């Protein structure tokens, strides 16, 4: 049977993070036909938040907003036969499953609820050599989800699984894929990666956002129509905001990735084989994805308490901005010497400004350490005491406050055989998911040979983003910056001219850091990975942009010499 004659499995997303649009679940269920509705609620920072919730109440540790979304949506999903799969279980998937059963009872619904567990390793960190974290969670794969769905579950909640597993699991269950169906699994991983962050595939965080048809319309959430061979079409419900184009999909494909091999617990997807083509309005076809056996280890996310932090932001207005900043630093030098302090001056001021805010720069002082008292009012109060004895125009953005705890994120890798993976079926039966199948140690893909580049010709000084798109994100302490071209000629320039030294010159903050470049000709893209830019992770670092979400836009704003032929 040809693919055109097949009915694909329609898998949608209704959440890209804990705190995403609360109405999205209902919108997706009522906006068109679906088979499966997924939700991604977990990120590295979210696991720390949920760990603190669980420390206060052992019955918590899951995404409570998911329950509130279900209140108005569960009956509709049942009536339409739409399965729901979400990782909202966090650190307590069994607790969330029980709460959902209670909710269904209150609503008078006959709902088969299953959950996946085993990722939470907090009780065995000592024997695994993982230290004493607040949370330790292995990234499980899709086979537990598939087992739950095959048992007849209407709704499956998980703890920490890879984001793409929320799509791979339903597809594997529906099509009866085997563990060695590497290409099909890899295709579903790509589809899962594309829809896991919700509207980022339909125009959110999109470099060329001004090309979207209606900026006032709420962006639609994405749908992956997955076929039996793992090929897919990314689309959205008719009439929703945003757009699904080769460019919006390319942007999301480059988000939070490393090299050409995208490793997961079930398969390693080769991102250098992904082929994207327009399939009509708001439809992009994904084909050609090749898969390889996964690595022999599983990633474990470790969240620990790093200490305490506090900050004060001084507003410096008008003339002598640098001198005013030096004045404050000198006045707080004694505290500065006693604490782990970082000062940053953001020159947001404009000369001869017509509005006071446009004349102001921001001097931010962040302190960190182990003593919450020394970092609390002892620090912030000392800063405020300068109000009548410091630079002219002294004021700050917030009153003095106490120190707050911050977390540190690290990752470890352990043999997959040491991690339990259990599907708990609707009737309570516990099914261990066997560790089986071929594995392969992950290796970098050599940079491909590039076609001859004929040279720039006449050039003009313009921002890089005049021609190129970019998307950036975080992975622990590293950041990635994916840059893509929209024509073959532009990619020729990009691949030849934007190498690591050029990247580091354009972004001086990266100059002393390890940077690697990965070329993806099939996407007309290059991806840079900057190690240590984010230090100990989003909760610990004190950058203005702690998740590196805007590094790509910073890069696009930098002036380069571009060939006039590309403009």
Task: Kindly describe this structure.
The model has no long low-confidence stretch (mean pLDDT 95). Strands 11-12-8-7-1-2-3-6-4-19-20 form an eleven-stranded mixed sheet, sandwiched between helices. The protein is 26% helix and 26% strand. The protein is of the alpha+beta class and 567 residues long. Strand 22 and strand 23 form a beta hairpin.
Descriptive tags:
567 residues; globular; six-stranded antiparallel beta sheet; alpha+beta; eleven-stranded mixed beta sheet
Q: How many strands?
A: 26
What is the average of the pLDDT values?
95
Classify the secondary structure makeup into a structural class: alpha+beta
Number of helices: 17
The portion of residues assigned to helices is 25-40%
Q: What value does the Rg take, in angstroms?
A: 25 Å
Low-confidence stretches: none
Quick structural overview:
The protein has 17 helices and 26 strands. It is of the alpha+beta class.
Outline the fold blueprint.
Elements: E1 9-13, H1 24-30, E2 36-39, H2 44-56, H3 64-71, H4 74-80, E3 83-86, H5 93-107, E4 113-117, H6 125-128, E5 135-138, H7 143-150, E6 155-158, H8 165-175, H9 182-195, E7 222-226, E8 232-236, H10 246-253, E9 261-263, E10 268-270, E11 275-278, E12 284-287, E13 290-292, E14 297-317, H11 321-331, H12 333-338, E15 340-346, E16 360-369, H13 372-375, H14 377-384, E17 395-396, E18 404-415, E19 422-424, E20 430-432, E21 459-463, E22 469-475, E23 478-484, H15 488-497, H16 500-506, E24 515-520, E25 525-530, H17 551-557, E26 559-563
Parallel strand pairs: 1-2, 2-3, 3-6, 4-6
Antiparallel strand pairs: 1-7, 4-19, 5-14, 7-8, 8-12, 9-10, 10-13, 11-12, 14-16, 14-17, 14-18, 15-16, 19-20, 21-26, 22-23, 23-25, 24-25
Helix pairs in contact: 3-5, 7-8, 8-9
């Amino acid at each position: 049977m040809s693919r055109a004659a097949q009915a694909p499995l329609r898998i949608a997303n209704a959440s890209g993070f804990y705190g995403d649009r609360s109405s999205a679940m209902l919108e997706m269920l009522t906006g068109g036909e679906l088979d499966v509705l997924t939700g991604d609620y977990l990120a590295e920072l979210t696991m720390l938040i949920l760990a603190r919730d669980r420390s206060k109440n052992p019955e918590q540790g899951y995404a409570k907003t998911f329950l509130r979304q279900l209140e108005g949506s569960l009956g509709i999903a049942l009536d339409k036969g739409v399965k729901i799969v979400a990782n909202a279980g966090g650190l307590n998937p069994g607790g969330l499953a029980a709460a959902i059963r209670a909710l269904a009872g209150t609503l008078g619904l006959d709902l088969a609820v299953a959950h996946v567990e085993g990722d939470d390793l907090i009780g065995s960190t000592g024997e695994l050599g993982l230290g004493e974290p607040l949370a330790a969670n292995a990234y499980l794969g899709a086979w537990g989800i598939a087992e739950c769905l095959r048992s007849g579950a209407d709704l499956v909640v998980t703890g920490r699984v890879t984001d793409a597993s929320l799509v791979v699991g339903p597809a594997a269950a529906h099509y009866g894929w085997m563990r060695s169906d590497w290409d099909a699994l890899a295709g579903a991983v790509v589809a899962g990666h594309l829809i896991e962050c919700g509207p980022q595939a339909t125009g959110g965080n999109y470099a060329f956002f001004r090309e979207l048809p209606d900026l006032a319309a709420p962006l639609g959430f994405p749908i992956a129509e997955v076929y039996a061979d793992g090929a897919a079409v990314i689309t959205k419900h008719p009439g929703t905001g945003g757009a699904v184009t080769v460019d919006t999909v390319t942007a999301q494909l480059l988000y939070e990735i490393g090299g050409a091999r995208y490793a997961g617990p079930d398969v390693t997807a080769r991102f250098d084989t992904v082929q994207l083509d327009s399939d009509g309005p708001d439809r992009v076809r994904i084909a050609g994805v090749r898969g390889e056996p996964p690595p022999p280890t599983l990633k474990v996310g470790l969240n620990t308490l790093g200490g305490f932090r506090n900050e004060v932001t001084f507003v410096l207005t008008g003339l002598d901005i640098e001198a005013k900043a030096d004045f404050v630093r000198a006045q707080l030098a004694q505290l500065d010497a006693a604490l782990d302090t970082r000062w940053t001056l953001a020159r947001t001021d404009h000369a001869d400004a017509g509005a006071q805010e446009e004349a102001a720069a921001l001097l931010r002082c962040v302190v960190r350490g182990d003593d919450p008292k020394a970092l609390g009012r002892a620090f912030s109060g000392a800063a405020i005491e300068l109000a009548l004895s410091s630079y002219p125009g002294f004021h700050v953005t917030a009153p003095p406050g106490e120190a707050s705890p911050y977390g540190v994120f690290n990752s470890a890798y352990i043999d997959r055989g040491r991690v339990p993976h259990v599907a708990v079926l609707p009737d309570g039966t516990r099914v261990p998911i066997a560790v089986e199948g071929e594995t392969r140690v992950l290796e970098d893909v050599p940079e491909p040979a590039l076609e001859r580049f004929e040279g720039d010709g006449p050039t003009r000084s313009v921002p890089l983003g005049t021609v190129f798109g970019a998307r950036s994100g975080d992975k622990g302490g590293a950041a990635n910056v994916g840059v893509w071209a929209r024509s073959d000629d532009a990619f020729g320039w990009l691949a030849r001219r934007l190498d690591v030294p050029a990247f580091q010159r354009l972004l001086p903050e990266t100059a002393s850091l390890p940077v690697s470049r990965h070329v993806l000709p099939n996407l007309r893209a290059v991806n840079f990975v900057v190690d240590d830019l984010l230090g100990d992770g989003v909760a610990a670092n004190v950058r203005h942009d702690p998740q590196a979400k805007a590094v790509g836009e910073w890069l696009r704003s930098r002036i380069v010499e571009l060939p006039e032929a590309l403009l």
